[in-house]
Design goal:
This protein is an alpha+beta fold. It folds into four domains: 40-159, Beta Barrel (Thrombin, subunit H); 173-272, Trypsin-like serine proteases (Thrombin, subunit H), CATH 2.40.10.10; 282-368, PDZ domain (Pdz3 Domain, Roll); 390-478, Pdz3 Domain. It has helices at 2-18, 23-26, 36-42, 69-79, 123-126, 259-272, 289-295, 313-316, 338-345, 403-409, 424-427, 447-455, and strands at 46-56, 100-114, 118-121, 131-135, 141-150, 155-159, 181-186, 194-206, 212-216, 228-230, 236-243, 254-258, 282-285, 303-308, 324-328, 331-332, 351-358, 361-368, 390-391, 396-400, 415-420, 435-439, 442-443, 463-469, 472-478. The strands form four sheets. Strands 19, 20, 21, 22, 23, 24 and 25 form a seven-stranded antiparallel sheet that branches. It has a six-stranded antiparallel barrel with strand order 1-2-3-6-5-4. A hairpin with a 2-residue loop joins strand 24 (463-469) and strand 25 (472-478). The longest helix is centred in the N-terminal third of the chain and has 17 residues, at 2-18. It starts with a helix and ends with a strand.
Length: 481
C-alpha cells in the first residue's frame, strides 16, 4: 500500500510539473548586445578635435595634450606614451621669449554629420581656440573652420575641406527609452576612438536653461566631450557633453544633449553663424506645492513669474509679476524650466497665445515674441514716506509708499514692511523693506485697506501673500495668527 501511494504521488508530481510554465516564457532572457559590428561601422565617422591658442610662453611645456602634468607620468609608464621634455621623450624646441606661441589648449571629440565635412561637437571644446585641428581615424589631419557655436546649449559646428567622408546616421532622441543600451565613442584623455557602453539612466534631466539632457551610466571622461551617443542601431541620439563628478573624472553619471535639440541649433549655426532665440522678458521662480495650493492650482504646475521686464514683450501683452504661465503657444507648461525652451524655440516676431493663472482663475493673453535684449539700470530704492504705521494680524508693521517708489518698482500699489513682530510673515522670511502688493486675490492700495483686509482673513486657511523685493515678486503662503 505504501509503495502504491508513493507511485501515485510521483505520477501526480509529474503531472503538476507539466502545467508549470517555463521561466523563459514568462521572463525572456535579456542578452548583452555585441557592439563590435556597430563600432566598426561608426568609428570612421568619429573624429578627434585638438585646439590651440596663442599664448606668451617663456619655456616649452611638456606633457600630453589635455592631460594634467601629474597624470602624464602615469600614461608614460603604463601606455608608453612619449612625453616631450621628459628623459625618454623627444626634445622640444625652445620658443622665442616674449613672442606669442601656438600652445595646445585641449582635446575633444566630434562626429561627421555630412560627407562633405560638416562636424558636430561641443561649444566648450572649441571656444577660445586660435586653431582647430580635426584628425580622422585614418590619421589624416585637417584645419577646421568654426561655423558657429552656442554656449547655452553647448553645441558647435565646424567644417573641414574634404569629400566622401563617412557620416553617422541621426536617430530620434524623443523615442529614447530609459534602460536601453547605448554606446559612446570619443577621445578621453586624448586616447582616440575609445569605446564605452552602458544604459540610459533617465531622460529630460534639467541641468541647463534650454536643454533636457539624456542621463546615462556610460563612462565619459575629459576628451569625450562632443562625441556621439549611439543606440544599438548605430544612430546618434545625443552628444556627450557633461559629467557629474567630484573628482574631475567619471563617477557613474554622464549627460548627453538630445540630437533633436542639437540639430535644431546646428541648422541655425550653419545658416546664420549664431543661434537666435525668442524671449518675452520675464524672470521665473520656483513653484512649490505650498504655493500652488495657496493660489488654488491644486498641484504644482506652470511657470511662476517673479518679475516682468518693464516695457518688454510680456509686459506689453499683459503678463504681471505673480502670474503663473500655464501654457505658451498651445503647449502646456508643467514646470518653470519648460518655459525658456518653448519661448526660445519660437520665432521672434510671432504673436502667440499665453494662458496665465491670476487671482484664482485662468486668463488668456497674447504676447509678441522678440529676440532683442534689453536691460535696466538698477535704481537704489528711496526711503518710504511714512503716513502712518500699523500692526496687523500677519505680524508686520507697514507704511504707505510714495508715488516715486511705486514707479521705481514698477508697481501700482502696496505697503512697505517697516517692522516685524512674532507673526507668520516674519517666520516666512519677510524682512523690512519688502513691499506687500497683494493678499489672496486683492491688490493692496494702502495701509487702511491692507489692515481691513487681513482682519477678515480666515485663520484656518492659508492665503498667498505677494511680496515685491527689489526686482522680484515672491509669493508666500501663510496662515494668519
Amino acid at each position: 500500500m505504501k509503495k502504491y501511494f508513493i507511485a501515485l504521488l510521483a505520477i501526480f508530481s509529474l503531472g503538476q510539473l507539466a502545467f508549470i510554465p517555463s521561466a523563459s516564457a514568462q521572463n525572456p532572457r535579456v542578452t548583452i548586445p555585441d557592439f563590435a559590428d556597430l563600432v566598426e561601422r561608426a568609428s570612421p565617422a568619429v573624429v578627434n578635435i585638438r585646439t590651440t591658442e596663442k599664448v606668451m610662453v617663456q619655456q616649452a611645456q611638456g606633457g600630453i595634450p589635455g592631460i594634467p602634468e601629474d597624470q602624464a607620468e602615469f600614461f608614460r609608464r603604463f601606455f608608453g606614451v612619449p612625453i616631450p621634455g621628459m628623459p625618454n621623450g623627444p626634445k622640444q624646441a625652445q620658443p622665442n621669449p616674449g613672442k606669442p606661441q601656438e600652445a595646445d589648449r585641449g582635446v575633444g571629440s566630434g562626429f561627421i554629420i555630412e560627407s562633405n565635412g560638416f562636424i558636430l561637437t561641443n561649444a566648450h571644446v572649441v571656444e577660445g581656440a586660435t586653431t582647430i585641428y580635426v584628425t580622422l581615424t585614418d590619421k589624416r589631419e585637417f584645419k577646421a573652420k568654426l561655423l558657429g557655436m552656442d554656449k547655452r546649449t553647448d553645441v558647435a559646428v565646424v567644417k573641414i575641406e574634404a569629400r566622401d567622408l563617412p557620416k553617422l546616421p541621426l536617430g530620434d532622441s524623443s523615442k529614447v527609452r530609459v534602460g536601453e543600451w547605448v554606446l559612446a565613442i570619443g577621445s578621453p584623455f586624448g586616447l582616440e576612438n575609445t569605446v564605452t557602453a552602458g544604459i540610459v539612466s533617465a531622460k529630460s534631466r534639467d541641468t541647463g536653461d534650454y536643454l533636457p539632457f539624456i542621463q546615462t551610466d556610460v563612462a565619459v571622461n575629459p576628451g569625450n566631450s562632443g562625441g556621439p551617443l549611439l543606440n544599438t542601431a548605430g544612430q546618434v541620439i545625443g552628444i556627450n557633453s557633461q559629467i557629474f563628478s567630484r573628482s574631475g573624472g567619471y563617477m557613474g553619471i554622464s549627460f548627453a544633449i538630445p540630437i533633436d535639440e542639437a540639430m535644431r541649433v546646428a541648422d541655425q549655426l550653419r545658416t546664420n553663424g549664431k543661434m537666435t532665440r525668442g524671449r518675452i522678458g520675464v524672470a521665473l521662480g520656483e513653484m512649490t506645492k505650498e504655493v500652488a495650493e495657496s493660489l488654488g492650482l491644486g498641484k504644482p504646475r506652470g511657470a511662476y513669474v517673479r518679475n516682468v521686464e518693464p516695457g518688454g514683450p510680456a509686459a506689453a501683452g499683459g503678463i504681471e509679476a505673480g502670474d503663473v504661465i500655464l501654457s505658451f503657444n498651445g503647449r502646456d507648461i508643467t514646470k518653470s524650466t519648460d518655459l525658456p525652451r518653448v519661448v526660445g524655440e519660437t520665432k521672434p516676431g510671432t504673436l502667440v497665445p499665453v494662458q496665465v493663472w491670476r487671482k484664482g482663475g485662468a486668463r488668456d493673453l497674447t504676447v509678441t515674441v522678440t529676440d532683442t535684449e534689453s536691460t535696466q539700470a538698477a535704481k537704489k530704492p528711496e526711503a518710504p514716506v511714512t503716513k502712518g504705521d500699523s500692526a496687523n494680524t500677519l505680524g508686520v508693521v507697514v507704511s504707505e509708499l510714495s508715488d516715486s517708489k511705486k514707479k521705481d518698482l514698477n508697481i501700482k500699489g502696496g505697503v512697505e514692511v517697516t517692522g516685524l513682530g512674532d507673526g507668520p510673515l516674519a517666520r516666512a522670511g519677510i524682512r523690512p523693506g519688502d513691499v506687500i502688493i497683494r493678499v489672496a486675490d486683492a491688490d493692496i492700495t494702502g495701509v487702511k485697506q491692507f489692515e481691513a483686509l487681513v482682519k477678515g482673513l480666515d485663520v484656518n486657511k492659508a492665503v498667498p501673500v505677494f511680496i515685491r523685493r527689489a526686482d522680484s515678486t515672491l509669493v508666500v503662503p501663510v496662515r494668519p495668527k
